[in-house]
Design goal:
The complex is a heterodimer of chains A (87) and B (245). With 87 residues, chain A is an alpha+beta fold. Chain A has one domain: Phosphoribosylformylglycinamidine synthase subunit PurS (Mth169, Chain: A), CATH 3.30.1280.10. Helices cover 29% and strands 31% of the residues of chain A. Chain A contains two helices and three strands, in the order βαβαβ. In chain A, strands 2-1-3 form a three-stranded antiparallel β-sheet, with helices on one face. The radius of gyration of chain A is 16 Å and the shape is elongated. The mean pLDDT of chain A is 93. With 245 residues, chain B is an alpha/beta fold. Chain B has one domain: Rossmann fold (3-Layer(aba) Sandwich), CATH 3.40.50. Chain B has six helices and eleven strands. In chain B, β1, α1 and β2 form a beta-alpha-beta unit. Chain B is globular and about 45 Å long. Chain B starts with a strand and ends in a 9-residue tail after the last helix. The mean pLDDT of chain B is 95. Classes of the chains: A alpha+beta (87), B alpha/beta (245). Chains A and B meet through α1 of A and loops of B.
């Protein structure tokens, strides 16, 4: 068994209205920032998995990401293994 | 004998008492169902009330979806049992995939607590038959995530198959669509409530239980609760359940 640290990044799917992203975009003018567009606000979940190996750990994270951390109707996710991070 | 209807209590539910009362007014004998119980105690129908189940952490309704009682609710609905989700209860049903679509953050990004007007799309369902006629119904909303979303193909299918149960309308009864006053959360096609394909599970964002007696300012919601109670009684007596029944 070994420990593995992962990050799951959840974002609104393309085409899904993201009022938070729009609000962030709307505030950019107040900061005097130009040239920023297509802001999408999502969520990042970091977690540690104890499993036989990294492949087994990733399987667990994939299930968690698709069944709980994201809603497949409206959100997409990516799984990223965090290297060099104490699990 | 009065019909027993279960009201699920999650940690964070806050409309359970109002719903129990509304169901009593509608003629039922409501009972509480704790979120940790795996059995529905033989109730004839189930209501998932409003609130913030499990704090609405992660996404509204998603943690509640995995609670033991929801396993029982899913099995009950599979057998044709009547289930109604109100507000947070609708969000739980959507997360569980028991009704189509998802509830997104309100377009305004604000929590909205105010009265809206909705109209039933059909009057031949277990959730609407006692309303009597298509007319505007005034009742409160209280939610941060009530913007109904499904992709275009799903929306078309819902309309074609008669699964749209309620829409936000103006006071004149005209469908609200892009009218921000009448459809304040920005729901696609002004959808305020939907049913599953079988027609035995429904969810809506507005609160009929908060408009179940005239002393509350409106009793426009009582027809919805009474529909459920009557349908549950019929189901318990072995009668047909579902759309057109």
């Amino acid at each position: 068994m070994s420990s593995h640290r992962f990050a799951v990044n959840v974002t609104p799917k393309p085409g899904i209205l993201d009022p938070q992203g729009r609000a962030v975009e709307g505030s950019l003018g107040h900061l005097g920032i130009e040239g920023v567009s297509a802001v999408r606000v999502g969520r990042r979940v970091e977690l540690t998995v104890e499993a036989a190996d990294v492949a087994a750990a990733r399987t667990v994270v994939e299930r968690l990401a698709s069944e709980l951390l994201s809603n497949p109707l409206i959100e997409a996710y990516t799984v990223e293994e965090l290297q060099g991070v104490p699990a | 004998m009065t019909v027993r209807i279960g009201v699920v209590v999650f940690p964070g539910s806050n409309c359970d008492r109002d719903t129990l009362h509304g169901l009593t007014v509608a003629g039922a004998e409501p009972v509480e169902l704790w979120h940790e119980q795996a059995s529905l105690d033989g109730v004839a129908a189930v209501v998932l009330p409003g609130g913030f189940a499990y704090g609405d952490y992660l996404r509204a309704g998603v943690i509640a979806r995995f609670s033991p009682v929801m396993r029982a609710v899913a099995a009950f609905s599979e057998e044709g049992g009547l289930v109604l989700g109100i507000c947070n209860g609708f969000q739980v049903l959507a997360e569980a995939g028991l009704v189509p679509g998802a509830l997104l953050r309100n377009r305004s990004l604000r929590f909205l607590g105010r009265d809206v007007t909705i109209a039933p799309e059909r009057l031949d369902t277990p959730f609407t038959h006692a309303i009597g006629e298509r007319r505007p119904l005034r009742m409160p909303i209280a939610h941060g995530e009530g913007c109904y979303y499904a992709d275009e193909a799903t929306l078309d299918a819902l309309e074609r198959d008669g699964q749209v149960l309620f829409r936000y309308v103006g006071r004149d009864g005209a469908v609200a669509d892009d009218d921000k006053r009448a459809n304040p959360n920005g729901s696609l096609r002004a959808i305020a409530g939907v049913m599953n394909a079988r027609g035995n599970v429904a969810g809506l964002m507005p609160h009929p239980e908060r408009a179940s007696e005239t002393i509350l300012g409106s009793d426009d919601g009582i027809g919805i609760l009474r529909s459920l109670v009557e349908s549950a009684a019929l189901a318990r007596a072995g009668g047909p359940v579902g759309v057109g029944a």
